Amino acid sequence: MAEKRDVLERLLARLAHEIRNPLSSLDIHVQLLEEDLGELAPETRRQLTSRLEIIHGELHRLESIVSHFLKLAGPSELDLEPVDFLKVVAHVCELLRPEAAAREIEIATSLPEPLPVFSADKVRLTQALMNLVINAMQAVERKGRIEVGARMLGDTLSVTVRDNGPGIAPDKATSIFEPYFTTKAEGSGLGLWIAQQIVTAHGGRLRGENAPGGGAIFTMTLPVKREG
Ligand SMILES: Nc1ncnc2c1ncn2[C@@H]1O[C@H](COP(=O)(O)OP(=O)(O)O)[C@@H](O)[C@H]1O
Ligand SMILES: [Mg+2]
Questions:
Q1: DSSP of 119-168, one letter per residue?
Q2: β-strand partners of 147
Q3: How far is CA 179 from CA 98, 137, 192, in A?
């Protein structure tokens, strides 16, 4: 299964690269055409200029889709350093609390014990947790509560983000980790997918389910090799 996904990812990255070359060649030729327009009669020039502008714009859009995609599909090497996950939680909460407060959402933490420092990619783990808490805030919308918890279960760090929003619709549960799957008008559908990629790259797992008392709960588990 993991192997199959690996092959697919490499194939997609290759496809993106291959699309990029003709795209940049097209871009150059459109620019040359724009220069050639100067020699035409004003009326024809005006008409053709607006068409070329559309082509130019669309080319840029394609280019940004491809580079965005490459960033996602590209090999994501982890930048490992000793990480104190309590600091990651504190940082994410600090970043999101002002927005939460404005919407009367309480972000509480449940961190019963000091956690071992372990080797991980702090920037990416921060991003993963942030994506989960942002989703929780969007699910709650206004007036609610989010709880971020972290604790050790044997050699595994278990991190939970729980909200009291509407929960995950049962018919959507299998799709939410798919790239570009979103139920939001302005959603990218990439938050959970990226978070899952990050957690998986650390040898961990990310899952989401509905909490017994209502709302959703996302759990990420990370294997912890204790430092020293
Ligand atoms: N805390 C949550 N409660 C309910 N549904 C959620 C929650 N988090 C994610 N989802 C569902 O998963 C979908 C995908 O999430 P995500 O990948 O972050 O993309 P986006 O947030 O852009 O929609 C969301 O559109 C939503 O339907
Ligand atoms: Mg999201």
A1: EE-HHHHHHHHHHHHHHHHHHH-SSEEEEEEEEEETTEEEEEEEE-SS--
A2: 108, 162
A3: 29, 20, 8
The model's pTM: 0.74
Domains in the chain: ranges and CATH: 2-73 (1.10.287), 81-223 (3.30.565.10)
Q: Read off φ and ψ for residue 135, nearest 5 degrees.
A: -60, -40
Handedness of CA 81, 84, 85, 91 (dihedral sign): negative
In angstroms, what is the span from residue 192 Cα to ligand 1's centroid?
Answer: 7
Tokens 């055409």, residue?
33
Query: Ligand 1 mean position to 133 CA, how many Å?
Result: 10
> Using a 6 Å CB cutoff, which residues line ligand 1?
131, 135-136, 139, 163, 165, 167-168, 172, 176, 181-184, 187-193, 216
- What are residue 120's DSSP bridge partners? 81
Q: From ligand 2's centre to the CA of 34, what distance in Å? A: 40
- Tens place of pLDDT for every residue, the chain, 228 residues? 667 777 777 777 778 778 887 888 898 888 889 889 988 999 999 999 989 999 988 998 888 888 777 766 655 678 899 999 999 999 999 999 999 999 999 999 999 888 999 999 998 999 999 999 999 999 999 999 999 999 999 999 999 999 999 999 999 999 999 988 999 998 888 899 989 999 999 999 999 999 999 999 999 999 997 655
Choose among 89, 71, 72, 76: nearest CA to 201. 76
